[in-house]
Amino acid sequence: DAKTTQPNSMESNEEEPVHLPCNHSTISGTDYIHWYRQLPSQGPEYVIHGLTSNVNNRMASLAIAEDRKSSTLILHRATLRDAAVYYCILRGWETSYDKVIFGPGTSLSVIP
Amino acid sequence: GAGVSQSPSNKVTEKGKDVELRCDPISGHTALYWYRQSLGQGLEFLIYFQGNSAPDKSGLPSDRFSAERTGGSVSTLTIQRTQQEDSAVYLCASSLETGLGYNEQFFGPGTRLTVL
Protein backbone atom coordinates (compact mmCIF):
# COMPACT_ATOMS: atom_id res chain seq x y z
CA ASP A 1 0.00 0.00 0.00
CA ALA A 2 1.16 3.51 -0.69
CA LYS A 3 2.10 5.12 2.57
CA THR A 4 2.59 8.61 3.93
CA THR A 5 5.13 9.93 6.41
CA GLN A 6 4.59 12.91 8.64
CA PRO A 7 6.47 14.46 11.55
CA ASN A 8 5.26 13.16 14.88
CA SER A 9 4.64 16.61 16.31
CA MET A 10 4.82 20.31 15.54
CA GLU A 11 4.30 23.53 17.43
CA SER A 12 2.93 26.84 16.28
CA ASN A 13 2.22 30.18 17.83
CA GLU A 14 -1.34 31.36 17.83
CA GLU A 15 -2.31 33.54 14.88
CA GLU A 16 0.70 32.46 12.84
CA PRO A 17 0.60 30.28 9.72
CA VAL A 18 1.31 26.58 10.06
CA HIS A 19 2.76 24.34 7.36
CA LEU A 20 2.22 20.62 7.98
CA PRO A 21 4.30 18.46 5.62
CA CYS A 22 3.51 15.01 4.27
CA ASN A 23 5.70 12.76 2.15
CA HIS A 24 4.15 10.19 -0.14
CA SER A 25 6.95 9.17 -2.49
CA THR A 26 5.15 6.01 -3.70
CA ILE A 27 1.95 7.80 -4.68
CA SER A 28 0.31 6.52 -7.85
CA GLY A 29 -1.31 8.62 -10.53
CA THR A 30 -4.82 7.85 -9.35
CA ASP A 31 -4.26 8.51 -5.64
CA TYR A 32 -6.06 11.42 -4.03
CA ILE A 33 -4.36 13.18 -1.12
CA HIS A 34 -6.68 13.66 1.82
CA TRP A 35 -6.19 15.45 5.13
CA TYR A 36 -8.24 14.81 8.24
CA ARG A 37 -7.80 16.13 11.74
CA GLN A 38 -8.82 14.78 15.11
CA LEU A 39 -9.53 17.17 17.93
CA PRO A 40 -9.10 15.83 21.48
CA SER A 41 -11.80 13.33 22.46
CA GLN A 42 -13.52 13.58 19.08
CA GLY A 43 -13.71 11.54 15.90
CA PRO A 44 -11.66 12.67 12.90
CA GLU A 45 -13.06 15.35 10.62
CA TYR A 46 -12.36 16.02 6.97
CA VAL A 47 -10.15 19.01 6.22
CA ILE A 48 -9.31 19.03 2.53
CA HIS A 49 -8.30 16.85 -0.42
CA GLY A 50 -6.62 17.23 -3.78
CA LEU A 51 -5.25 15.33 -6.74
CA THR A 52 -2.76 17.49 -8.63
CA SER A 53 -3.60 21.16 -8.22
CA ASN A 54 -3.41 23.24 -5.08
CA VAL A 55 -6.70 23.53 -3.26
CA ASN A 56 -8.23 26.08 -0.93
CA ASN A 57 -11.26 25.87 1.30
CA ARG A 58 -12.54 27.66 4.37
CA MET A 59 -10.45 25.54 6.70
CA ALA A 60 -7.09 25.31 5.00
CA SER A 61 -5.03 25.19 1.83
CA LEU A 62 -3.34 22.18 0.30
CA ALA A 63 -0.16 22.65 -1.66
CA ILE A 64 0.83 19.66 -3.78
CA ALA A 65 4.34 19.29 -5.16
CA GLU A 66 4.66 19.12 -8.92
CA ASP A 67 5.84 15.50 -8.77
CA ARG A 68 3.08 14.76 -6.20
CA LYS A 69 5.54 13.03 -3.90
CA SER A 70 4.84 15.46 -1.13
CA SER A 71 2.18 17.88 0.00
CA THR A 72 1.72 20.55 2.64
CA LEU A 73 -1.37 21.44 4.60
CA ILE A 74 -1.42 25.15 5.34
CA LEU A 75 -3.39 26.67 8.17
CA HIS A 76 -3.22 30.38 7.43
CA ARG A 77 -3.74 31.59 10.96
CA ALA A 78 -3.54 29.03 13.73
CA THR A 79 -6.02 29.26 16.56
CA LEU A 80 -6.11 27.31 19.81
CA ARG A 81 -8.94 25.27 18.33
CA ASP A 82 -6.58 24.01 15.62
CA ALA A 83 -4.63 21.96 18.16
CA ALA A 84 -5.24 18.43 16.93
CA VAL A 85 -3.69 15.41 15.27
CA TYR A 86 -3.52 15.91 11.51
CA TYR A 87 -3.60 12.87 9.25
CA CYS A 88 -2.38 12.79 5.66
CA ILE A 89 -3.92 9.88 3.74
CA LEU A 90 -3.79 8.55 0.21
CA ARG A 91 -6.92 7.16 -1.38
CA GLY A 92 -6.83 5.43 -4.73
CA TRP A 93 -7.69 2.19 -6.49
CA GLU A 94 -4.34 0.59 -5.69
CA THR A 95 -4.87 1.15 -1.97
CA SER A 96 -8.56 0.35 -2.32
CA TYR A 97 -10.49 3.60 -2.32
CA ASP A 98 -12.68 2.52 0.52
CA LYS A 99 -10.09 0.99 2.81
CA VAL A 100 -8.79 4.18 4.34
CA ILE A 101 -5.60 3.60 6.29
CA PHE A 102 -4.64 6.24 8.84
CA GLY A 103 -1.02 6.68 9.89
CA PRO A 104 0.06 8.12 13.26
CA GLY A 105 -0.36 11.70 12.00
CA THR A 106 1.18 14.95 13.26
CA SER A 107 0.19 16.26 16.66
CA LEU A 108 -0.06 20.03 16.38
CA SER A 109 0.25 22.16 19.49
CA VAL A 110 -0.76 25.82 19.33
CA ILE A 111 0.90 28.13 21.82
CA PRO A 112 -1.10 31.15 23.01
CA GLY B 1 -29.01 17.04 9.06
CA ALA B 2 -28.08 14.39 11.59
CA GLY B 3 -24.55 13.09 11.57
CA VAL B 4 -23.22 9.63 12.31
CA SER B 5 -24.36 8.43 15.70
CA GLN B 6 -22.94 5.66 17.86
CA SER B 7 -24.21 3.94 20.95
CA PRO B 8 -23.41 3.51 23.69
CA SER B 9 -20.99 6.36 24.18
CA ASN B 10 -19.28 4.43 26.96
CA LYS B 11 -19.28 0.74 27.77
CA VAL B 12 -17.60 -0.95 30.70
CA THR B 13 -17.61 -4.72 30.67
CA GLU B 14 -15.92 -7.61 32.37
CA LYS B 15 -13.34 -9.77 30.66
CA GLY B 16 -15.00 -12.65 28.84
CA LYS B 17 -18.32 -10.95 28.24
CA ASP B 18 -19.72 -10.17 24.78
CA VAL B 19 -20.44 -6.58 23.72
CA GLU B 20 -22.35 -5.00 20.86
CA LEU B 21 -21.57 -1.54 19.53
CA ARG B 22 -24.01 0.24 17.26
CA CYS B 23 -23.52 2.72 14.45
CA ASP B 24 -26.21 4.73 12.67
CA PRO B 25 -24.72 6.22 9.49
CA ILE B 26 -25.89 9.33 7.73
CA SER B 27 -29.03 8.58 5.75
CA GLY B 28 -28.25 7.67 2.16
CA HIS B 29 -24.60 6.89 2.77
CA THR B 30 -23.73 3.62 1.09
CA ALA B 31 -20.33 3.03 2.69
CA LEU B 32 -19.76 2.35 6.38
CA TYR B 33 -16.45 1.87 8.17
CA TRP B 34 -15.34 0.72 11.61
CA TYR B 35 -12.05 1.75 13.18
CA ARG B 36 -10.44 1.19 16.55
CA GLN B 37 -8.26 3.68 18.39
CA SER B 38 -6.31 2.58 21.43
CA LEU B 39 -5.20 5.19 23.94
CA GLY B 40 -2.65 7.53 22.38
CA GLN B 41 -2.57 5.60 19.13
CA GLY B 42 -3.72 6.19 15.58
CA LEU B 43 -6.82 4.74 13.94
CA GLU B 44 -6.77 1.05 13.11
CA PHE B 45 -9.00 -0.01 10.22
CA LEU B 46 -11.32 -2.90 11.12
CA ILE B 47 -13.96 -3.43 8.44
CA TYR B 48 -15.99 -1.63 5.82
CA PHE B 49 -19.27 -2.21 4.08
CA GLN B 50 -20.18 -0.88 0.65
CA GLY B 51 -23.75 -1.23 -0.54
CA ASN B 52 -24.76 -4.86 -0.90
CA SER B 53 -21.25 -6.16 -1.51
CA ALA B 54 -19.52 -8.54 0.87
CA PRO B 55 -17.69 -6.54 3.54
CA ASP B 56 -13.94 -6.22 3.65
CA LYS B 57 -13.12 -7.90 6.95
CA SER B 58 -9.37 -7.84 6.48
CA GLY B 59 -8.76 -5.51 9.41
CA LEU B 60 -10.59 -7.51 12.07
CA PRO B 61 -7.94 -8.50 14.65
CA SER B 62 -9.39 -11.90 15.53
CA ASP B 63 -12.39 -14.15 15.00
CA ARG B 64 -13.87 -12.75 18.20
CA PHE B 65 -14.75 -9.65 16.19
CA SER B 66 -17.65 -9.58 13.76
CA ALA B 67 -19.85 -6.94 12.21
CA GLU B 68 -23.04 -6.81 10.28
CA ARG B 69 -25.00 -4.16 8.49
CA THR B 70 -28.72 -4.67 8.24
CA GLY B 71 -30.75 -3.18 5.42
CA GLY B 72 -27.80 -1.20 4.21
CA SER B 73 -28.08 1.16 7.13
CA VAL B 74 -27.40 0.44 10.81
CA SER B 75 -24.30 -1.57 11.65
CA THR B 76 -23.40 -3.56 14.75
CA LEU B 77 -19.87 -4.48 15.76
CA THR B 78 -19.80 -7.47 18.09
CA ILE B 79 -16.86 -8.48 20.22
CA GLN B 80 -17.13 -11.89 21.83
CA ARG B 81 -15.27 -12.99 24.95
CA THR B 82 -13.77 -9.54 25.43
CA GLN B 83 -10.15 -9.20 26.51
CA GLN B 84 -8.45 -6.29 28.23
CA GLU B 85 -6.55 -5.47 25.03
CA ASP B 86 -9.91 -4.79 23.35
CA SER B 87 -10.21 -1.62 25.44
CA ALA B 88 -10.24 1.29 23.00
CA VAL B 89 -12.46 3.85 21.32
CA TYR B 90 -14.40 2.28 18.46
CA LEU B 91 -15.17 4.77 15.71
CA CYS B 92 -17.68 4.45 12.91
CA ALA B 93 -17.68 6.50 9.72
CA SER B 94 -19.88 6.68 6.66
CA SER B 95 -19.57 8.17 3.21
CA LEU B 96 -21.89 8.89 0.33
CA GLU B 97 -20.25 6.84 -2.39
CA THR B 98 -17.72 4.12 -2.76
CA GLY B 99 -15.05 3.41 -5.30
CA LEU B 100 -14.20 7.08 -5.58
CA GLY B 101 -11.07 8.63 -4.23
CA TYR B 102 -12.54 11.90 -3.15
CA ASN B 103 -15.59 11.04 -1.09
CA GLU B 104 -15.45 12.50 2.41
CA GLN B 105 -15.82 10.26 5.44
CA PHE B 106 -18.01 11.48 8.28
CA PHE B 107 -17.11 10.10 11.68
CA GLY B 108 -19.25 9.44 14.70
CA PRO B 109 -18.23 10.39 18.24
CA GLY B 110 -17.09 6.86 19.04
CA THR B 111 -17.82 4.30 21.73
CA ARG B 112 -15.27 4.06 24.53
CA LEU B 113 -14.97 0.41 25.55
CA THR B 114 -13.30 -0.52 28.79
CA VAL B 115 -12.73 -4.18 29.60
CA LEU B 116 -11.97 -4.82 33.25
Please describe the structure with a list of short key phrases separated by commas or semicolons.
heterodimer, A: 112 residues, mainly beta, 4-stranded antiparallel β-sheet, 9 strands, 0% helix, B: 116 residues, 6-stranded mixed β-sheet, 45% strand, globular
Question: What would your notes on this structure say?
Answer:
- The complex is a heterodimer of chains A (112) and B (116).
- Chain A is built from no helices and 9 strands.
- Chain A is mainly β and 112 residues long.
- Helix content of chain A is 0%, strand content 45%.
- Chain A has a 5-stranded mixed beta sheet, with no helix packed on it. A 4-stranded antiparallel beta sheet of chain A has the order 2-7-6-5, with no helix packed on it.
- Chain A starts with 8 loop residues before the first strand and ends with a strand.
- Chain A has strands spanning 9-13, 18-23, 32-38, 45-50, 55-56, 61-64, 70-75, 84-91, 106-111.
- The mean pLDDT of chain A is 90.
- With 116 residues, chain B is mainly β.
- In chain B, strands 2, 4, 5, 8, 9 and 10 form a 6-stranded mixed beta sheet that branches.
- Chain B has strands at 5-7, 10-13, 19-24, 31-37, 44-50, 65-69, 75-79, 88-95, 106-107, 111-115.
- Chain B starts with a strand and ends with a strand.
- Chain B contains no helices and 10 strands.
- Chain B is globular.
- Chain A binds chain B through residues 30-32, 34, 36, 42-46, 49, 51, 85, 87, 91-93, 96-105, and chain B through 4, 31, 33, 35, 41-45, 48, 50, 56, 58-59, 91, 93, 98-110.
Q: Sketch the major β-sheet of chain A.
A: 5 strands, mixed
Share of helix of chain B, binned: under 10%
- Low-confidence segments of chain B: none
Strand percentage of chain A lies at: 35-45%
Biggest interface, CB < 8 A: A-B, 27 and 29 residues
**Rg for CA atoms of chain B:** 14 Å
Indicate the multimeric state.
Answer: heterodimer
Instruction: Categorize the overall geometry of chain A.
Output: globular
Number of strands of chain B: 10
- What is the averaged pLDDT score of chain A? 90
Give the low-confidence spans of chain A: none
**H/E topology pattern of chain A:** EEEEEEEEE
The order of strands across the largest sheet of chain A is: 1-9-8-3-4
Can you count the beta strands of chain A? 9
Structural class of chain A: mainly beta
